[in-house]
């Protein structure tokens, strides 16, 4: 009987140990799960037991930061770092709280965070600012790349690029960087004129091309077109490469009419869609005769293109395929610069006089307007 009693006591004691162990495991599991769930449901942060607070302090630190409570941000971030010292984001939270407290110890914290990761916005901006202040252009460009990788909007990116390329050494480093970065190259061509003057924009692209950056004709056409629309005729001419020019754009003083199937560049003819106007391109190869038929009673734009005529007097002559003059087409010339106006008058059949003002008209748009009826034109001569 004594043995049976002892066995019963041993069983009860073992059962008690297992029960306590299961309760501890359950408590730990619940605590861990609640702590992990805090990332999705921040309101659970106060329910996490102290022993399992690995994610909860991050939520509480962010809440304190949003409330501009520097002291509590530092306290929670310090606890977070004691439990999870590796992630750079945790150092970023501590640095943010210290900045709210105006602590003079924030510098080393930011420097430590920068060495641990590139995904945190504050740390990247801090590293970028340090590189710009010390004119360490290679590091600044690395941080710029990180910002693009983080998909920051152009409002973050553009001022950084501007500050880099406004410095001669920074411009050279950035141009060299474009050689190996097609994404940055495309972004600069697209957005560069939003924050740079035309001369700097052109200089960066030409320097990058000289360093070996590869620009296809579509990219160069986009850049040149933007310069033309910015009334930067000289820069546009500098930038547009001869390898991309068509027959209609590479012969000074004589402009021919490639067919609409030929890919057009910024200095080539454009053929806008017009009601009642039909066009036909006759001839072999890229040089053709442009025939038209306008069934509308209103005059319509047959073709248009950019010019970069110098200030002063010029003449424009239109000829058919036999070399005869074409008199039934109007010539319109408009300056792209604000407030500037070109003077156009008919001198004789098929010949028009054009006067370009001395300022504000480095780029012009030439438009040929046709009346109701039919006709043809083979080339336009500019003198």
Briefly summarize what is shown.
By secondary structure, the chain is α+β, with helices and mostly antiparallel strands. Helix content is 46%, strand content 17%. Strands 1-11-5-8-7 form a five-stranded antiparallel β-sheet, with no helix packed on it. A three-stranded antiparallel β-sheet has the order 2-3-10, with no helix packed on it. Strands 4-9-6 form a three-stranded antiparallel β-sheet, with no helix packed on it.
The dominant shape is elongated
Taken as a percent bin, the fraction of beta residues is: 15-25%
Main sheet makeup: 5 strands, antiparallel
* Estimated structural class: alpha+beta
Description:
By secondary structure, this protein is an alpha+beta fold. The chain has a domain at 254-382: Jelly Rolls. Helices cover 46% and strands 17% of the residues. The protein contains 13 helices and eleven strands. A five-stranded antiparallel sheet has the order 1-11-5-8-7, with no helix packed on it. A three-stranded antiparallel sheet has the order 2-3-10, with no helix packed on it. Strands 4-9-6 form a three-stranded antiparallel sheet, with no helix packed on it. A hairpin with a 6-residue loop joins strand 2 (277-282) and strand 3 (289-294). Helix 4 runs antiparallel to helix 5 and helix 8 (154-165) packs across helix 9. The longest helix has 36 residues, at 2-37. The radius of gyration is 35 Å and the shape is elongated. The termini are far apart.
How is the secondary structure organized here?
Blueprint: H1 2-37, H2 56-66, H3 70-83, H4 88-100, H5 106-114, H6 121-133, H7 137-149, H8 154-165, H9 168-178, H10 182-191, H11 198-210, H12 217-229, H13 233-239, E1 254-256, E2 277-282, E3 289-294, E4 300-307, E5 312-319, E6 330-335, E7 343-348, E8 351-356, E9 364-370, E10 373-377, E11 379-382
Helix pairs in contact: 2-3, 2-4, 3-4, 4-5, 5-6, 6-7, 7-8, 8-9, 9-11, 11-13, 12-13
């Amino acid at each position: 009987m004594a043995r049976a009693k002892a066995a019963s006591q041993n069983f009860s004691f073992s059962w008690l140990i297992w029960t306590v162990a299961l309760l501890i495991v359950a408590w730990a599991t619940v605590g861990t799960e609640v702590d992990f769930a805090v990332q999705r449901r921040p309101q659970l942060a106060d329910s996490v037991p102290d022993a399992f607070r690995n994610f909860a302090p991050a939520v509480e630190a962010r809440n304190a930061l949003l409330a501009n409570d520097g002291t509590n941000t530092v306290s929670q971030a310090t606890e977070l770092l004691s439990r999870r010292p590796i992630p750079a984001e945790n150092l970023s939270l501590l640095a943010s709280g210290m900045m709210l407290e105006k602590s003079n110890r924030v510098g080393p914290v930011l420097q430590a965070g920068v060495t641990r990761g590139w995904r945190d916005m504050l740390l990247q901006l801090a590293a970028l600012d340090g590189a710009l202040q010390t004119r360490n252009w290679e590091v600044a460009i690395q941080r710029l790349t990180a910002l693009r990788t983080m998909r920051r909007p152009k409002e973050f990116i553009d001022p950084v690029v501007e500050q880099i390329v406004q410095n001669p050494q920074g411009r050279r480093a950035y141009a060299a960087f474009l050689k190996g970065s097609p994404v940055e190259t495309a972004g600069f061509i697209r957005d560069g004129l939003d924050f740079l003057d035309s001369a700097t924009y052109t200089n960066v692209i030409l320097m990058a091309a000289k360093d070996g950056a590869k620009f296809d004709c579509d990219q160069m056409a986009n850049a040149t077109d933007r310069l033309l629309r910015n009334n930067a005729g000289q820069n546009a001419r500098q930038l547009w490469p001869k390898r991309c020019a068509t027959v209609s754009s590479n012969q000074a003083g004589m402009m021919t009419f490639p067919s609409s199937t030929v890919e057009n560049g910024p200095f080539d003819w454009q053929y806008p869609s017009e009601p009642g106007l039909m066009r036909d391109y006759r001839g072999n190869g890229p040089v053709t005769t442009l025939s038209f038929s306008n069934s509308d009673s209103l005059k319509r734009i047959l073709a248009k293109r950019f010019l970069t005529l110098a200030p002063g007097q010029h003449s424009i002559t239109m000829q058919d395929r036999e070399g005869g003059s074409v008199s039934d087409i109007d010539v319109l010339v408009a300056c792209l610069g604000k407030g500037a106006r070109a003077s156009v008058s008919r001198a004789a059949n098929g010949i028009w006089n054009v006067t370009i003002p001395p300022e504000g008209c480095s780029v012009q748009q030439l438009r040929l307007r046709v009346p109701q009826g039919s006709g043809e034109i083979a080339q336009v001569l500019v003198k």
